[in-house]
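Entry for 5'-O-[(L-methionyl)-sulphamoyl]adenosine complex. Fields follow.
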Amino acid sequence: MSKTYYLTTPIYYVNDVPHIGNAYTTIIADITARYHRLKGDKVHFLTGTDENATKVAAAAAEKGMDPQDFVDKLAAAFQDVWASLDITNDDFIRTTQPRHKDVVTAIFKRLMDQGDIYKGSYTGHYCVPCETFYADSELADGKCPECGREVTEVEEENYYFKLSAYGDRLLKYIEDNPEFLQPEAKKNEVVSFIKQGLRDVSITRANNGWGIEVPGDSSKVIYVWFDALINYISAIGYLSDEKRFNEIWPADLQLMGKDIFVRFHSTFWPAMLMALDLPLPKTLFSHGFWTINGEKISKSKGNAISPAKLAEDLAAESGASREVCLDAVRYFLAREMTLGMDGDFSIKIFRNRFNSDLANDLGNLLNRTLSMLGKYFEGVMPDYETFGGGLADKIAETKDLAEKYCDSYEFTKALEAVWNMIGAANKYVNDMQPWVLAKEGKNAELGGVLESALEVARAAAIMIKPFMPATAKEIAAQLAITDFDNLLWSNITDADPFAKGTKLNEPAPIFPRLPKQKKEEAEPKPKKEKKAKVPEKKPLIPYDVFAQLELRIAEVKQAEKVEGADKLLRLIISLGDEERQIVAGIAKYYEPEALVGKKIVLLANLEPAVIRGVESNGMLLAADGVNGAVVLTPADPDTPAGAYIK
Ligand code: MSP
């Protein structure tokens, strides 16, 4: 059996419950863990809480609580939050647990015995919120260089870790192991940090009644970072279960935010491991920070978003299940911000992605193919060969591409590849016009087209499983895939995955489209005036009247009949960077499916109107044809959606 794939998140300070920032680290780690399980790897996924910090004790004191009661309460809250987000961690370590404390004490003793820890006297500055010591030269205007807050002068006799002895070895290791520190830009930062020269680190502080006592010196407790980093090995049996430890260590991925990458995880931690003669983790990955509407996430600003609350609000508004809405949050976090870069969270962009990527692209592929299967074949997989349209190749190619990107932690690109495949299938259906094939009685081709598109939906369900587990399950249920839980990544390219004669299920929209944001909705809509009778011939108008018309090319993304109105179709159209809903009175002349993928001409600045209870934001232009209305389309079908007609 191959080695266990071991991945870790930082252990979080328990001074507050998690927000979308630290949830991001845990969600990305969860996606990675689920991806490796899907590949058939044995996985060990660790997260936990950092409980011995001074600021934790201070937060407890502020609440008038005993520190142990306080950390018990918050550690439980963290576990509840991760459970409510369906995080699949295999273990949860708390640094107040004896299994951890014992290992920290033993390591301290060993490093003391071998001379890597020595006693000395220290004068410097300590930043309590960052739990970090700084020398005079490191301060920024006398304040903490990391958070800008006041620092406390400390003058103490302390124990030191001989970090200075490891600089050259670290530099050589980094150079010899290109995968060790990622992304590249951060690696370069670490290299310059080490090249400036490493100082020995004070790893103890005065004992104020909270923390792990220094063995043989109860006047001191062990510095929280020295203590916390050890969680990655204490949790998996270091010094207590060597067999288990050797099966799991070294870690394959240690993921953390950029705030704790350079100094702690890429310098101090590997030096500690070198001192213990342990192999170093394969990859330490630094990810960026989320801001919210351009602002730093902070308790005082009150802008911290809880991912669970976000999902619950979305579920209440859209009618989709809470699990599916949680998937939408996971999808957004993985898709929107390249791992390693910073990103900004805005509800508006989140809602746009929900509508365009999930409701339209993914939802539409499943819905339209299943409904056509229902309409033309009573929902039963027909006994026809797939005709392709290159979709089988597209599935195989996307499988390889998405795998390559997931293996290198490029989740944004992996999802882009999957969505590109979904787009290709939607386009194939548009191009093949199954409704025309049905009219012409070409059942073999029709069956082939639907089967090809359904195979893409199945492939997509497996590929998105690590990112959106509940959605994947729901798609699989609609596709009547009974052994979905057991399918592996390698099953994506199974030949002929749908048994002929299988009855698939009725489509049910997984992601109902979200209306425009409430704020905009709340704006009073101008009252529609009664239409004047159109005169036979219109009077001449000056150019500037024409110039007031915003005529644009749009692409139809979705089309359906408006319930209870036999003339009306509800269309979702794309203007390139924006999607809209319009209502058009052409239901008598067009099958809704025939319009999807078509480019149309739109009067884009017509004031909005509510027609039969459906909001219309623009007007499709049509001409009187021989048999009724003919939708105007651009002469050149390659005209991009959004183009202005001038
Ligand atoms: N306890 C230490 C880690 C010890 S690991 C041996 C710690 N804890 S923390 O609670 O402050 O969590 C820090 C981590 O939360 C960051 O490294 C990052 O992973 C995550 N994030 C906190 N805010 C964040 C954002 N705004 N955006 C993205 N991630 C953020 O440091």
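NOTE: Residues 361 and 423 are 7 Å apart (CA to CA).
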